[in-house]
């Protein structure tokens, strides 16, 4: 069931260092809420290794990274009032996790929660998608998020 305006965002082929790293940062506007419908993280690597991906609400915003384009899923729809950012140079703090999963880099991470389990970002709130574990080598990451802005 859809109540708001649907958007997709993300990036392709951005290198994330070996350290545990914030891969996406969603910042909600002060006048809306955001419901997250889908998150996908894939690594462009030939190395078979595990990584844990975590999705969490964040209390603070640090150096969030590059602004990602927001694409409306309905042609001609108005723009989104929130923002999505790419690989952070400094991670957010005060995390409250809603989901974590260990995956092989070669398989990637794809999360589509049921409607009643979708995280809702409060007005002015933040949600981050993180690679929780260090990895052996730097590799390029593709990231994708679909969300609904309500209000």
Written overview of the protein:
- It is a single chain.
- The protein has strands at about 5-15, 20-25, 35-45, 50-60, 70, 85, 95-105, 110, 120, 125-130, 140-150.
- The protein has about 150 residues and is mainly beta.
- The chain has one domain (about 5-150): Jelly Rolls (Sandwich), CATH 2.60.120.
SS-based class: mainly beta
CATH 2nd-level architecture: Sandwich
Number of strands: 11
What does the average pLDDT come to? 91
Radius of gyration: 15 Å
State the end-to-end CA separation. Answer: 15 Å
Counted up, domains total 1
Helix and strand sequence: EEEEEEEEEEE
Helix content: under 10%
Largest sheet: 6 strands, antiparallel
The oligomeric status of these chains comes to single chain
In the CATH scheme, the class would be Mainly Beta
> Under CATH, the topology is which?
Jelly Rolls
What fraction of the residues are assigned to beta strands by DSSP?
over 45%
Catalogue the unreliable spans: none
Overall spatial form: globular
- In DSSP terms, counting alpha (H) and pi (I) runs of 4 or more, how many helices? 0
